[in-house]
Each structure stands twice: as C-alpha cells, then as structure tokens.
C-alpha cells in the first residue's frame, strides 16, 4: 500500500525570467526577457534624445533665419546696403562676410552680385568671381544728349548741378596737399558726360581715383572723371560732347559718392589747371 503523503510541488526552473530555446544540437540557450522596469526606461529614453536634437538644431535654424541674400542693383554701394538692411557692424562687416564675392576693392560692387546679409557668403554657398581691380563694370550705351545740355561752343557740364569742393582747396585729404580738381555731389549711378568731343586715352582703375576716364580733346587739353561706378567707353574710342562716358560712384579714395573732375594739360596726374575757369571760358558755369 502506498504511503500517503503530500504531493511535492515541482521546483520551478532556475531561469526565472526567461524562456528556453532548443537549438539543433539539443542545447538550451536562455534568452532574458525585458522586465517592466527596463521597458519603461527604454520608452523614457526616446524623448530625451529627441529633446537634445531639438536643442542643438535651434541655433542652426535661428542662424539660417537671420541669414539673407541681397542682389546688388545699379547705384548700390556697401554703406547704403548695410544701412538699408540694418547690418550689424556696418559696411565693414558686410564686406568681411562677402570678401570672396566682392574681391579686393570694397568700393567696386557690380549689379547682380549676390551678397549675404547676416553671415559669410561661404556658409550659404554664395560664390561669384571677384572683379579684377583694373576692370570696371560697363554701363549701358547712352542716348544722344539733349540740346539743353550743350552750349554754343560745343561744351557741356559733366553732370547736373554745382560743384562743392573748390579747385586747390587745401587739406590732409589730398596727397598733394591740395585738391587737383572739383567735386560734384551726385548720387551713385548719375550719368557722366564728356565735356566736349575727343578721344579716350584712359578707361579703368586709377588708384585713389577709383574707376576713371581721361579724354584728350582737339585743343590739347584733357578732361578727367574719377570715382566712377561703371564705364561706358574704352581706350581709343572717339566721343562727342555730352556723350555718356560712365556712371558716377564711390570707387577709390572717397568718403561718399561724387564725381571728381579735372582739366589737365597732359594725360597724367599733376598737370591740372583750374577746371571752373576752363569751363567758364566755353560758356559752362558750374
């Protein structure tokens, strides 16, 4: 007779939190199950990672929002663009950020250039070949001058209006110690006219004069037009009285846009004569 007694509860597997998988060779591999605590931790980790990515992306998005692209138009110069667009650091910062686009001369910018406002041009992929300092943009060919611009002697004023800085004015602003011409305070992009017929002997970069044109006239005198933003003529070209030879600007050694005008007895610096008296002798009052 079998001995009565209590049934013994079979012992549970020593792998308490797992399951057994039998391999081909009969070996058993224990694979742990993910407990409730571990699952909760994994769920909580995802938002943390997302939050960190969002935090890091915020400054980048803000920087991209602050960076804009500006397309240069005729009559623009860096100080004007910086002021109109409230660029922190003024034209110097604008030039620094776009030096690869503009080139070595901050006073010479061309219509169509893409400038970056609020960051460097390299960061936005804005690239454009910088113009060589010896070259100037070519202005559109002008229409024939109106009769009102001419005097009976065949001479015209180079630009409208009266001059400001007098001939031979003294001061430290000029390397010779005095002003070798007269200045006309006109806005960038104003049409500049040949005072009378002649032949172009200089058209290009003139150092402190910026972009300049020098014209030789039939009486042996020369007229010079400095700080131009664009040129309409080339060396060797014949021009008539009142023909546009370029557009006024602020290239070279200037504090703002204007036309520097000289009359000379030779083509080069240092042969200047009084331009006011010369024009007055031909019926032109400036």
Task: Describe this entry's structure for a reader.
The protein is of the alpha+beta class and 286 residues long. Among the domains are: 68-124, Membrane-bound Lytic Murein Transglycosylase D, Chain A (Roll); 147-280, Glucose Permease (Domain IIA) (Distorted Sandwich). 21% of the residues lie in helices and 22% in strands. The chain is built from six helices and 13 strands. The protein has helices at 36-66, 78-84, 90-97, 99-102, 121-124, 275-280, and strands spanning 18-22, 28-32, 68-71, 114-117, 182-184, 191-193, 198-205, 211-217, 222-231, 238-239, 244-248, 259-264, 272-273. Strands 5, 6, 7, 8, 9, 10, 11, 12 and 13 form a nine-stranded antiparallel β-sheet that branches. It has a two-stranded antiparallel sheet with strand order 1-2. A hairpin with a 5-residue loop joins strand 7 (198-205) and strand 8. Helix 2 packs across helix 3 (90-97). The longest helix is centred in the N-terminal third of the chain and has 31 residues, at 36-66. The protein is elongated and about 55 Å long. The N and C termini lie far apart (143 Å). The model is unreliable at 1-10, 12-49, 122-134 and 142-149 (pLDDT under 50).
Report the sheet-strand fraction: 15-25%
Residues in helix, %: 10-25%
Average pLDDT score: 72
Number of strands: 13
Give me the CATH fold name of the domain at 147-280.
Glucose Permease (Domain IIA)
Please state the overall shape, judged from the principal axes of the Cα atoms. Answer: elongated
Gap between N and C termini? 143 Å
Gyration radius, to the nearest Å? 38 Å
The number of helical segments is 6
Main sheet summary: 9 strands, antiparallel
Which CATH architecture of the domain at 147-280? Answer: Distorted Sandwich
Structural class: alpha+beta
Low-confidence stretches are: 1-10, 12-49, 122-134, 142-149
CATH top level assignment of the domain at 147-280: Mainly Beta
The CATH homologous superfamily of the domain at 147-280 is termed: Glucose Permease (Domain IIA)
